[in-house]
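I can't quite decide. Please look over this sequence plus structure tokens:

:::
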Amino acid sequence: MTDAPAPGTRRRPGEQALAALGLPAPDDHPADMSPHTFPDGGTWRTEIPSVEGPEALAEVLKESTRLDVPIHRISQGSGVWMLTDDEITEMVGACAARDIELCLFTGPRGTWDTGAATRTDSGGAGLRARGRDAVAGCVEDALRAAELGVTCLLVADEGVLWSLHRLRELGVLPADTTLKVSALIGPVNPASYTVYERLGADSLNIPSDLTLAHVTEIRGASRAPMDLYIEAPDDLGGYVRMYETAELIRRGAPLYLKFGLSKAPGIYPYGGHLRDLTLATARERVRRGRLVLDLLARHGADGGMSPLGSRRPGPLNRFPLPQGQD
């Protein structure tokens, strides 16, 4: 049995046992610690991804109550265009009742387009919006979602991100809309991370295979909130990094902990033919979240969570708008 850490202190996994064997943990380097927090003072928030419709959302909310898993954000991956107005309205209402941010993916993406390059080994341009019409579809999705009360939009293309940010600055999109960059195009170095921030990103997924040192490098260049799959789906590598969660928070704050699921078939684009799988995996993602939170508590690292209902990213750096756009 391991001793619980003293209140306000953090211990590393297996710390005392390994020290007794002459294998003490190295000291934390103060320079590795992120100097940033969310505007509410918290260092981490939670996100349940791949919640593809009202029925899956209901399962997530029910399971989060049963397992006492706090949720700051719910995200969906199939896209606004895969939901009816009634479905979106129902999801908006259910999340609002629990003060949870709802984030829906925008429009067409290259991997579903008619271009052949995405089917090759190189992957072509990946999820990016191919041509003006694809950008227009993403913008149409964003405007429709905003009219129905959605306040967070997920994007997978730099041009779409910049366009939506400009529309937000013009007042076409509500000023409190937040823009989130997909893990499938996430930046992998501090230079690219700051470019996405300046293009309008309020929250950025980084790939789940980045090292702790990479996280520190990125955090040294930008305070924009970071999203990271603690457990990644198989198409993002299937990594399970539960034991690193405390250190990821220490280095990456402000950080969204995303509870994904490995060894599960893909469900995008979602439809009724995938109902049973989608509901089962939605419930299991919440359970994975409970496992992570329990682990943090055992190691004395569960402090610093943002208050529930928090969603704002704080002040961020942006590129100047084109001349003539106020």
Observations:
- The chain has a mean pLDDT of 92.
- Residues 166 and 322 are 9 Å apart (CA to CA).
- The longest strand covers residues 226-231.
- The beta strands are 44-48, 73-75, 101-105, 152-155, 178-181, 203-205, 226-231, 255-259.
